[in-house]
Specification:
- The protein is an alpha+beta fold.
- The chain has a domain at about 90-140.
- It is about 40% helix and about 15% strand.
- It is built from five helices and four strands.
- It has helices at about 10-25, 70, 90-100, 105-125, 130-140, and strands at about 40-45, 45-50, 55-65, 80-85.
- Strands 1, 2, 3 and 4 form a four-stranded antiparallel β-sheet that branches.
- A hairpin with a 7-residue loop joins β2 and β3 (about 55-65).
- The two termini are about 40 Å apart.
- The model has no long low-confidence stretch (mean pLDDT about 85).
Length: about 140
């Protein structure tokens, strides 16, 4: 038997998690709410803010993987939700790094790459806070 994957909800991992949620015990036995898995997809890419200059930001978007890709990626579906912006590294930071780092001239690209990674991880730590992690583990009544 061959399994075709064309949507996120076709994946074995989705099917297994869905079954686990359906079988999970709940505290309130009178609750008739449907139990579902919400697949959250996050996406970000550099965006120029103006037609002139080099100012960029990285918007962070969220999409629901439960929706078909044919709906999810239509701009009129409004399935994409804007969450945050990841700001660029400031020029003043680069000026400071240039002064304090002994090998700036030869390692500038590596240093800036590292700083960008740390900035992105810091923003993600802010977005994926304790409330989000708790909801991820234990679910949420909506």
């Amino acid at each position: 038997m061959e399994h075709m994957y064309s949507e996120l909800y076709d994946l074995d991992v989705f099917y297994n998690k869905h079954n686990k949620v359906q079988c999970a015990l709940i505290n309130n036995q009178t609750c008739k709410r449907e139990k579902v898995i919400a697949v959250l997809m996050f996406w970000s890419d550099a965006t120029h803010l103006a037609t002139f200059g080099t100012v960029k930001m990285w918007p962070v978007y969220m999409l629901f993987g439960n929706l078909s890709k044919y709906i999810r990626f239509k701009s009129k579906s409004r399935a994409t939700k804007h969450l945050a912006y990841i700001p660029p590294l400031s020029d003043s930071l680069q000026d400071e790094l240039k002064v304090i780092h002994l090998k700036w001239d030869t390692q500038q690209k590596s240093i800036l790459t590292y700083c960008h990674q740390e900035l992105m991880h810091t923003v993600w730590r802010f977005l994926l806070d304790e409330d989000f992690i708790h909801m991820h583990i234990y679910g949420k009544v909506v």
